[in-house]
Design brief:
Blueprint (H helix, E strand, L loop, with lengths): L6 E4 L5 H11 L3 E4 L6 E2 L9 E6 L2 H10 L7 E3 L2 H9 L5 E3 L4 H11 L4 E7 L6 H7 L4 E8 L8 H8 L3 E6 L2 H11 L8 E4 L2 H4 L9 E4 L5 H19 L1
Parallel strand pairs: 1-2, 1-9, 4-5, 4-7, 5-6, 7-8, 9-10, 10-11
Antiparallel strand pairs: 3-8
Helix pairs in contact: 2-3
Length: about 240
């Protein structure tokens, strides 16, 4: 496991994978961009009647909504800064950001007290129950699945080669679903020199029995924190070699 220009596997779907790869390159590491899932739009009916706010829990939700509608008249509540940035780029003016956690987003919406329905444009596979949490606080809320994230059919060739050559320093996991797909594809490879970094405990749970050198949870469920954890472990490894 070499630290100079260490190879880091990015498993998240496009277009987010390219943005993460750019950040990996900017800190002097090599990015292996081999997504484990794809983002595919769904033709779900989009009913905006009575909607008083939009809640986004991912950049994919923002992009999927923006592709379907030019409606920008209501406040947006975003789970984190990256999602908020995507909402602003999509043309929303009133955008408020939580700190990256679902409970923080529910609290932010509670403090904002939006009127009308809180609509959550999302994917078919949900990692949490935002609308349930909002309903328990007395809001009228509903999900609308605007995209799906099917798993890839087979492990990408470049990822297979890196695994066979034990060339991976780390793999980044941005969602529990990506972790589940990864677990089904890499079982049997020698992962004893590879670290897995996840945005949350749920992102690491499916990987516990696969033999990774270490499972590292970001201090906060944000990519900044994920990359900070990666750099901390990399520096620790370099110090140990000196």
């Amino acid at each position: 496991m070499a630290s100079d220009g260490a190879l880091v596997w990015i498993t998240r779907a496009e277009p987010g994978a390219a943005a993460t790869a750019a950040r990996i390159g900017a800190i002097g590491l090599r990015a292996l961009m081999a997504p484990l899932l794809e983002v595919q739009p769904l033709e779900t009916p989009l009913d905006l009647d009575g909607v008083g706010a939009l809640a986004f829990t991912s950049t994919n939700g923002v992009w999927a909504f923006a592709a379907r509608s030019d409606w920008r008249r209501v406040p947006v509540f975003a789970v984190g800064d990256a999602t908020a940035k995507a909402a602003r780029a999509a043309g929303f003016d009133d955008v408020r950001s939580a700190d990256g956690e679902m409970l923080a987003l529910i609290d932010l919406i509670g403090k904002g007290r939006p009127e009308g329905v809180v609509l959550h444009p999302c994917g078919r596979h949900l990692a949490g129950d935002l609308t349930g949490g909002l309903k328990r606080q007395g809001f009228v809320a509903r999900d609308v699945a605007l995209y799906d994230t099917p798993a890839i059919a087979a492990l990408p060739a470049e990822a297979t080669l890196a695994l066979e050559e034990r060339a991976l320093f780390a793999v980044l996991i941005h969602s529990p679903r990506a972790a589940e797909i990864l677990a089904s594809l890499v079982d049997g490879f020698d992962l004893s020199e590879t670290l897995a970094f996840g945005l949350s405990s749920a992102c690491l749970r499916p990987l516990k029995t696969l033999g990774f050198a270490e499972l590292v949870k970001a201090k906060r469920p944000r990519e900044d924190a994920l990359l900070d954890a990666l750099l901390t472990r990399l520096r620790s490894f370099e110090t140990g070699r000196s």
